[in-house]
Amino acid sequence: MLNWLRWLPENASTYGADVDGVIAIIWYTTLVWFFLTFGTLGAFLVLYRRRPGRAAAHVRGERLREAAWILVPVAVVLVLDLWLDFRGAPVWAKVKIERPPAELTVQVTGRQFNWEVVYPGADGRFGTADDKPFIDELHVPVNRPVRVVLKSRDVIHSFFLPNFRLKQDAVPGRDIEGWFQATKPGKYELPCAMLCGFGHSGMKAYLYVHPEAEYDAWAAEQRS
Predict the structure, then answer these.
(1) Is the pLDDT score of 27 beyond 70?
(2) Among the listed residues 75, 138, 112, 114, the one whose alpha carbon sits nearest the alpha carbon of residue 198
(3) What is the DSSP string of 5-51?
(4) Which of 75, 97, 119 is where one domain is finished?
(5) Residue 106: beta bridge partners?
(6) Cα–Cα distances in Å, from 179 out to 15, 45, 112, 170?
């Protein structure tokens, strides 16, 4: 299924393939329905076009066979919608509800037009003197669950990791949690996906995914 979505960024998270599967189902179901609908419309335009000697007919839509042209498509769309909900529910639960225990918790605050990243110090709490702040860079280890606490200082921002299939709004006055687990070391873009002002296009940070030993060395260096 993933081969059908080559235009998406390379997946680098544990649940990215599940999200891609739902995207593929929605995309191709919609595509098939599109061609069926407009194919039928085009066929009717040809078959029932205006011709000499053919009188126009007034269709009231009162009889069942006439109403079926509306009722049957509605029923099909409803069944497809329920099927998509059924297929997507486990993925939603995996991403939003059934979060694994996090080995690392990071606080990320959006502001016009930067991402403020804060790591807790030795006490494991935010808002204390030993916090370690960064601007526009987030460092995490590969193969470990990471919990992100999202905040905003001004307007609504959107924390977006395309390669991880994670997008979550950061809303003023609220702490909103998200999580991901990277599967591939590398450097990934972390843009804001919500139009947040004049400098929105330049609000971009980077996520650095380190091999585990390399991250442990980096974290020890920051603590020292």
Answers:
(1) yes
(2) 112
(3) GTTSPPP-BTTHHHHHHHHHHHHHHHHHHHHHHHHHHHHHHHHT---
(4) 97
(5) 148
(6) 10, 51, 23, 14
Is-cis flag, bond preceding 38, omega within 30? no
**Tokens at 3, concatenated:** 């081969």
pTM of the model: 0.82
Report the DSSP pairing between strands 204-210 and 137-141.
Answer: parallel
Same domain, yes or no: 9 and 45: yes
State whether 70 and 136 are in the same domain: no
Query: Does residue 136 register a pLDDT over 90?
Result: yes
pLDDT one-digit tens code per residue, 68-81: 888 888 999 999 99
Report how far residue 164's alpha carbon sits from residue 159's, in angstroms, rounded to the nearest whole number: 11
Q: What is the CATH number of the domain that holds 136?
A: 2.60.40.420
